[in-house]
Design brief:
heterodimer, A: 212 residues, alpha/beta, Rossmann fold, 6-stranded mixed beta sheet, two-stranded antiparallel ribbon, 6 helices, 42% helix, 19% strand, globular, B: 85 residues, mainly alpha, 4 helices, 2 strands
């Protein structure tokens, strides 16, 4: 079976618009690596489409962008896409959302997923109000979203899930140190505390040796 | 170790006296947030004014901000932020 990635990227509020824009880099990398991309963008991030791709295509990587809690992950307009009964068999999952790493991530492993990477607390993201129509030009948001993208880009380069998890955390810490340095802007210095929260709440469940 | 820290934060927030002290500290810290910066927590986004209001009211969002601030202060105090591995 060919390697594939399923991406959910709704765009119904500010932070999902940011996630949507920043996910494009991952889609481009996947295409360059000849990984088949199933792109559930905007309204297509709904349960019917999601489960259809999961059941028929069995994606190697599931890259989730949206909102979450300890027990559910949601798509467009906050419709539930995943709950504790969802089966994502043999997939490596990365959830860029709040709190899915508290409980739901473990449920997905129990239900047959290879590896889950996500956050066990709220996902914080700083942004520049003047840049909200151009998320890719937002230098503050990039400090949060570049290390997050690194989880999936590292996987797409045939590295192990544990390596993807570690590289992302290392990049978060590198950014954090830059943000608290004397050369940082006031906005970078202030928002460093939010990145620290993401760094200390990123978790991995399941097999750290799993690869694409 | 994380569980111990999280339980301890919950203990502080559920103690009225400690919670009030923490709230005062967090209000000062949030008050230093630049106006040119936005904060997103999950599906909600905040300006400094919004964040101050949530902390003052002590609602769920305010508690999340207080937890985040306390954890960061602890990281500073313990030196963890300078030697993270």
């Amino acid at each position: 079976m060919s390697k594939s990635i399923l991406v959910t990227r709704p765009d119904h509020d500010l932070i999902t618009k940011y996630f949507y824009a920043w996910s494009q880099e991952i889609i481009d990398i996947a295409k360059n690596k000849n990984v088949v991309v199933f792109d559930l963008k905007g309204k297509k991030s709904n349960k019917k489409e999601f489960m259809s791709y999961v059941n028929k295509r069995c994606p190697s990587i599931v890259f989730l962008n949206g909102h979450g809690s300890a027990t559910i992950f949601t798509g467009y307009e906050n419709q539930t896409l995943i709950d504790s009964n969802t089966v994502l068999k043999n997939s490596i999952i990365y959830a860029r959302s709040c709190e899915v790493g508290q409980k739901l991530g473990l449920n997905l492993i129990e239900n047959g997923a290879k590896t889950f990477i996500g956050y066990n607390r709220k996902f914080f993201c700083g942004y520049t109000p003047e840049k909200i129509t151009k998320p890719l030009e937002d230098k503050i948001a990039s400090l949060f979203l570049e290390p997050s993208n690194l989880v999936v880009s590292t996987l797409l380069k045939n590295n192990k899930a544990g390596e993807a998890y570690n590289r992302s955390k290392q990049q978060m810490y590198k950014n954090f140190r830059k943000m608290v340095s004397s050369t940082a802007t006031f906005e970078e210095k202030y928002s460093a505390r939010w990145l620290w929260s993401n760094l200390t709440s990123q978790v991995l469940f399941g097999n750290p040796l799993a690869t694409l | 170790m994380n569980n111990k820290i999280e339980n301890s934060i919950q203990d502080i927030i559920s103690d009225p006296e400690l919670n009030e002290q923490l709230k005062k500290l967090v209000l000062e810290r949030v008050g230093a947030m630049p106006d040119s910066l936005g904060m997103s927590i999950g599906s909600k986004e905040f300006t400094k004014k919004d964040a101050l209001r949530h902390v003052e009211q002590g609602d769920d969002t305010g508690k999340q901000i207080m937890e985040m601030e306390l954890e960061f202060i602890r990281g500073l105090a313990s030196g963890a932020v300078y030697s993270y591995e």
